[in-house]
DNA sequence: CTGTATCCAGTTGGATACTG
DNA sequence: CAGTATCCAACTGGATACAG
């Protein structure tokens, strides 16, 4: 609290977390995992129309590598994999809420001179 | 408040505002305009080392078209242009703060099982 | 000073086919 | 089921040159 950022450090800090969420599908994936929801790979494929296997796998790998999503493999045939948010992944909620709030203000606040 | 979003609508809502902030330089530009700061084109060029004229102009155009940044042209020779945040542009502050807070929790919260 | 136009390389993402 | 591999088209951003 009361922490002060210079434009440079604040921007790079925010930019860093933005990078973690970049890509066309990551946010959609995160929302489908909210509230501790578990989803299998095939569940996410069905829940996100238009996403390709390649992108789903790739984005999940990155989210996992960044510590936002956890992957649990059940060693059986055929294989079963479940994805969920890590604790840190859940912690992004307030930030996403704030962004939604900002989006809502778009029609309320003046945007011109 | 208490508004409930389905994964789909919430994701697209957040994704929409994310799109507005996408690009490698927009956040940096926004931070240099915080607190009602006025900046000329050449000021921003100096403040943001590494950015090209093309990108600075392009990102400013988009921020302006999206109602986040306002552009004021002084009709004189040589031309003078000042940029500042719109009211809605200023309103993004809390969201950016929340993202910074999330970034800070990265070392505090467990990221694995 | 404040841009626009052009060319070019690197990256991103989609379609398809294949694997343990 | 849960991926990987490959090819390819579209987009992004940098460098440079030019203009009002």
TrEMBL record, chains A, B:
Taxonomic superkingdom: Bacteria
A Pfam match: HxlR
Domain HTH hxlR-type: 6-111
Key words of the record: DNA-binding, Transcription, Transcription regulation
InterPro entries given in the database record: ArsR-like_HTH, HTH_HxlR, WH-like_DNA-bd_sf, WH_DNA-bd_sf
SUPFAM superfamilies given in the database record: Winged helix' DNA-binding domain
Listed transmembrane segments: none
Stretch forming the signal peptide: none
Name this polypeptide is given: Helix-turn-helix domain-containing protein
Organism the protein comes from: Paraburkholderia dipogonis
Origin organism lineage: Bacteria, Pseudomonadati, Pseudomonadota, Betaproteobacteria, Burkholderiales
């Amino acid at each position: 609290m009361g922490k002060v950022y210079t434009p440079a450090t604040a921007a790079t800090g925010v930019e860093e977390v933005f990078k973690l969420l970049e890509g066309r599908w990551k946010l959609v994936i995160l929302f489908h995992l909210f509230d501790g929801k578990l989803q299998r790979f095939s569940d996410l494929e069905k829940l996100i129309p238009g996403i390709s296997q390649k992108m789903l796998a790739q984005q999940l790998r990155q989210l996992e590598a960044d510590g936002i999503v956890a992957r649990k493999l059940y060693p059986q045939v055929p294989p079963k994999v479940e994805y969920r948010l890590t604790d840190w992944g859940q912690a992004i909620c307030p930030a996403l809420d704030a962004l939604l709030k900002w989006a809502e203000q778009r029609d309320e606040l003046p945007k011109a001179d």
